[in-house]
Amino acid sequence: MAQTPPASSPRTPEVNPPSFGSEAGQAVSGSATPAFSPLYQQIKGLLLQSLQAGEWKPGDLIPSELELAGRFRVSQGTVRKAIDELSADNLLVRRQGKGTFVATHSEQQVQYRFLRLEPDSGNRDGQGPAERQILDFRRLRAPAEIAHRLGLRSGDPVFEVRRVLSFQGTPTILEDLWLPGSPFKGLSLETLANHQGAMYALFERQFGVRMVRADERLKAVAADAESAATLGVAASFPLLSVERVAYTYNDTPMEYRRGLYRTDKHHYHNELS
Amino acid sequence: MAQTPPASSPRTPEVNPPSFGSEAGQAVSGSATPAFSPLYQQIKGLLLQSLQAGEWKPGDLIPSELELAGRFRVSQGTVRKAIDELSADNLLVRRQGKGTFVATHSEQQVQYRFLRLEPDSGNRDGQGPAERQILDFRRLRAPAEIAHRLGLRSGDPVFEVRRVLSFQGTPTILEDLWLPGSPFKGLSLETLANHQGAMYALFERQFGVRMVRADERLKAVAADAESAATLGVAASFPLLSVERVAYTYNDTPMEYRRGLYRTDKHHYHNELS
DNA sequence: GAGTGGTCTAGACCACCTT
DNA sequence: AGGTGGTCTAGACCACTCC
What we know:
The structure is a homodimer.
Chain A: H1 39-52, E1 61-62, H2 65-72, H3 76-88, E2 92-95, E3 99-102, E4 117-119, E5 131-141, H4 144-150, E6 157-167, E7 170-180, H5 189-194, H6 199-207, E8 213-222, H7 225-231, E9 238-248, E10 252-261, E11 266-272
Antiparallel strand pairs in A: 1-3, 2-3, 4-11, 5-6, 6-7, 7-10, 8-9, 9-10
The structure holds a DNA duplex.
């Protein structure tokens, strides 16, 4: 920055100085709400904007810390702290010597980041990849509850997908999912059926929609006749019901999903801390 | 530190210098394994030792960053980074202007940090505190599976507790839990029955055992006759089975727990990211 | 060797809490 | 006023990757 060594001389960064006035040292923080936001949070916000705007896409290399520091007229340390947090939130991934990249669901290592079902014995790799089968695909007008979960209005167009995931030939997960029509315009059965790998990777590549976090609600339920038949279990077999709302940047809901998991040979794993 | 401004002169901190030799600049990182560990990680390790050793107990104020920096002969920034990570792991809690404290389960705000069951409508506060009832308490020799989960040997003494948690008068959780005998020596039915609040708070206060993280495995199961009767549901009612191993510092297992949750009016909430 | 992220330092100042 | 954590800077050097 344009600043002489021995302290003093307040910064005048590009980012809007939050609490201290634009010039003349630090204001006594007026009268109303504090509303103080540190510089690195502002930088974080700016980086988030670029991510939301699609300026940098999943997998992309973003500018170096030094370049960003220059662009925002702050020190490298401040940019680092902003990136640290975005990286902790799984929005960015640092790679020493190479740079910082936009996180993606397309990497082998995080293929099933949101799928918490694991075989009771052995690890996930041991059972091979999941076999996917689309049972149904349609475009419809959102019923009240679906609309509510997706932050839409009743009647807004949505896509509905029903599919089964099998492990080693055993149908294990039956799920319905709903996607808002606009962001996924052009989604087709063919696209879904031809795609290999995690569904969220497809969403990124084809629609630029990156799922960032999700909320799940779990319950134990008895299988209804249809579900039981699809999953190959007896009627009223206990199943794990997993209801998920997945969000993209900005906490915008982008998917509502209802799954029924067989848990006789698998379990839902969760780490508490 | 004793160090003149313009660079050079390698540090000679109290902590064992990891990869670069004790003197004469930076070694070319010999031949064998990298084994490089940054200073702040070493500091983190030292702080962890103090926590494990019980030098600072849950709720205690630990020395200030500046004092720790002096003690370890490193800069404040390095101590900060170590504390940052311990704080992110919920082992320490920073409070601006006051200091850094050892995290505890005894605070109101985190009373149910490990209990993910929530009412379907309304929040947790709306339903009032859980009513606890101890059904059984005994001291026994660990069967093979319990011993295995707790990292003990079959036949080692353990405590077994069976209890019910009710919300607004409705029995909702039935759980059995096992604790290793040695760390919990002196545990009695009276202690358990008289205690108000989260069980993990009791463990901290009475036994100095702090639960730091836990692994849970969830399944949907059908209620057996006894569980159904206790929880007031029909036989083979679907219940959420929650199996938990809780760990203290150092990843030492300190509790094995098997719970059966009614999920007709509650759900298990999980956030994915 | 150049470029990137990663570590470490030293010092200034701010925000918050206590006395 | 003095102490604590929180932010920000500037600069040095290290580890890693690629050319």
